């Protein structure tokens, strides 16, 4: 089972990269738990949104299959990625390891934020 806390440095790196790209608003990691990441975007604070963090949830409910869910601040699903720890596993349909899944999920959140707000 994947524990997102084991990837905290990598997650912070990815979010900092998005922060450097965004000339107007600050991106930061609000929290990293075993199965949830909360990513704050300054524009949502500016809008005085009650829910000011995008979410990445890890769903480990199925044996041998783990999903990363990139979600809007209200929890609505934006995108999901089947991931595995270690090497990709085509036998379970996972084409991504956890690092590439995290990178894609964070990119998707930033891309969607910039195109929808």
Description of the molecule:
The chain is α+β, with helices and mostly antiparallel strands. The protein is 32% helix and 33% strand. The protein is built from 3 helices and 6 strands, in the order αββαββββα. The protein has helices at 8-21, 42-46, 98-116, and strands at residues 27-32, 36-41, 53-62, 65-71, 77-84, 96-97. Strands 1-2-3-4-5-6 form a 6-stranded mixed sheet. Helix 1 packs parallel to helix 3. The longest helix has 19 residues, at 98-116. The mean pLDDT is 91.
What characteristics describe this protein?
117 residues, 3 helices, alpha+beta
Q: Which word captures the global form?
A: elongated
Radius of gyration, rounded? 14 Å
Measured distance between first and last alpha carbons:
35 Å
- Please estimate the helix content: 25-40%
SSE pattern, N- to C-terminal: HEEHEEEEH
- Helical region count? 3
How many strand segments?
A: 6
The major pleated sheet works out as: 6 strands, mixed
List low-pLDDT spans: none
Strand order of the largest sheet: 1-2-3-4-5-6
Query: What class would the helix/strand composition place it in?
Result: alpha+beta
Beta-strand residue fraction: 25-35%
- What value does the average pLDDT take? 91
């Amino acid at each position: 089972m994947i524990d997102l806390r084991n990837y905290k440095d990598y997650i912070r790196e990815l979010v900092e990269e998005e922060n450097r790209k965004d000339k107007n608003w600050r991106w930061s990691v609000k929290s990293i738990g075993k199965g949830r990441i909360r990513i704050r975007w300054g524009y949502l604070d500016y809008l005085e949104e009650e829910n000011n963090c995008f979410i990445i949830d890890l769903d480990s409910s199925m044996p041998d299959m783990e999903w990363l869910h990139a979600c809007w601040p209200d929890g609505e699903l934006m995108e999901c990625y089947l991931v595995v720890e270690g090497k990709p596993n085509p036998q379970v349909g996972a084409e991504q390891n956890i690092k590439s899944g995290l990178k894609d999920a964070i990119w998707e959140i930033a891309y969607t934020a910039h195109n929808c707000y």
